[in-house]
Amino acid sequence: MERLLIKDVLSDKFIGKQVIVCGWIRTKRESKDFAFLIISDGSTQDTLQVVIPHEANCSEQIQKCNTGASVKIKGFLRESPAKGQRYEVEAQEIEVIGESDPAKYPLQKKGHTLEFLREISHLRPRTNTFGAIFRIRNVLANAVHNFFQDRGFLWVHTPIITSSDCEGAGELFSVTTFDFKNIPRKDDVVDFSQDFFGKPAYLTVSGQLEAEFLALSLGNVYTFGPTFRAENSNTTRHLSEFWMIEPEMAFADLKDDMKMAEDFLRYLFKEVTLKCEKELLFLQNQYKRISPDEISKLSDIAFTHITYTEAINELKKSKENFQFPVDWGNDLQSEHERYITDKVIGGPVIVTDYPKDIKAFYMRLNDDEKTVAAMDVLVPKVGEIIGGSQREERLEILEERMRKTGISIDNLQWYLDLRRFGSVPHAGFGLGFERLVQYITGMINIRDVIPCPRTPGEIGF
RNA sequence: UCCCGGGUAGCUCAGUCGGCAGAGCAGGUGGCUGUUAACCACCCUGUCGGGGGUUCGAGUCCCUCCCCGGGAGCCA
User: Could you identify the residue whose CA is nearest to the C1' atom of nucleotide B71?
Assistant: First the structure.
């Protein structure tokens, strides 16, 4: 007889049938005539109640059925006579597969703080909260691929180790095989010609530049992979290792880019409300941050669009006492973004056409020559989850921008080649996957939406 | 990196004016009950983050370092 997943077994079609279910024990309640186990197997938000009548004769096994132990249960599924659950399994046989010392097992049958659970990252997926988060994360990751695959985008694999440190997207992690006790030097500086690649190498901060050349031959592409930033950021929305999705489209301008970003987010919101109803409901009840209804509404509405200049005017009009000055030319601070999303718009908003001086060199210069064709998608509570732009496809203008911003032209000749040979308007964006998961799950800290968070000073698991 | 707030039992926390180290939960034992973060009784649990100082006496006051959380910057 095959084992069934809890998500499958909790159904009318198994009532009265003999089933085998495996899982981990959440709680045990014993009485003279019965013992009750609650078990979970990760397949669903629901737990399964197992009733062990005294006559099942497995008191030795019940003794070992402590919180955290893994068990195999053979019994009959039936409707539960008591309140609290619709189905339950009346056990005939119990096998404790792996015991768990209740005095030492860190998870108790009571609530734990998220901070404490972060210290036991290897066990926290067994909790309701993290089970929900990681199932949602899975559904979203799958939906990302489905969205792009349905639209003919190619999933491309851009390098994780790169030599370009020129994007200015933050501090880089070095990749080297040097023996730190004996680093080769020449004229007192590190001699990278003796290193593995013959020159300095880094972990990627973005696959965008490579995605651009793939788009300018394959049409529409996207990346979905890990990204690394060595910034000393200690916040609830930064990770040193995170996953990013970067679509890149040939023959597309900023309007196309925004439309794609909006359609994309709406699709993801829709998928998650369709496939993770129980998970979203659980998180809503537990943390009161965002409801399935709110997410569902987001999947229907058009996002508000506002230019950077309009946003500045809104901020200037407001009576809010901002800590940072509101001036055209300054970047929007967190408090400004929050005011726009929470107070002015009351939902996600796309801010476009930022001053060129606060944006990256590759963004396309607008006709006003003061702003670039950039767009950020801001959402309430989390802030920026998407940053994108139309790319500068005009060789001379790009070269000049690189010179002015101090980007090495020599190292990026291949990037300029794309403008020399059959250049076309193209655009793309980057979505921080964890920020998306964070927004949808309502988790306050981004460290709680990835199994093994990496942040400055933290690499425990 | 900067600014706040913390660090006391396995977990969550209280600890007054500087004067014997506490509670709830968890765990153990027994009881009871179709139980359900079960309930009742009893029992067990301490490097008070580390180091230094003041004092007759420090969880408490001072200095210092470490760690955690929140906010800011950087960004996705």
Answer: A235
Within A 229-268, residues with CB less than 7 Å from strand B = 229, 231-240, 242, 244
The closest alpha carbon to A255, from A425, A436, A378, A430, belongs to A425
Contact A329, A354 (CB under 8 A): no
pLDDT tens-digit profile of A236-278? 999 999 999 999 999 999 999 999 999 999 999 999 999 999 9
Q: Please name the amino acid found at residue A407.
A: I
Give the distance, in angstroms, between residue A113 CA and nucleotide B55 C1'.
39
ipTM: 0.91
Please state, as a whole number, how many other Cβ atoms lie within 10 Å of the Cβ of residue A159.
13
**Cα torsion through A86, A90, A91, A96, rounded to 10:** 20
Backbone dihedral region for residue A443 (phi beyond 0: left; psi -120 to 50: alpha; all else: beta): beta
Dist. CA A287–CA A80, nearest whole Å: 29
Closest nt to residue A102, judged CA to C1': B27
A325 touches strand B (CB under 7 A): no
B37 C1': nearest CA residue: A110
The pLDDT value given to residue A168 = 60
Residue A445 to residues A78, A126, A441, A442: CA-CA distances in angstroms?
40, 19, 11, 9
Domains, chain A, with CATH or none? 6-98 (2.40.50.140), 124-448 (3.30.930.10)
Going by C-alpha positions, the residue among A435, A433, A159, A375 that lies closest to residue A252 is A375
Task: Give the integer Cα–Cα distance in Å for A64 and A25.
Answer: 10
CB A348 within 8 A of CB A263: no
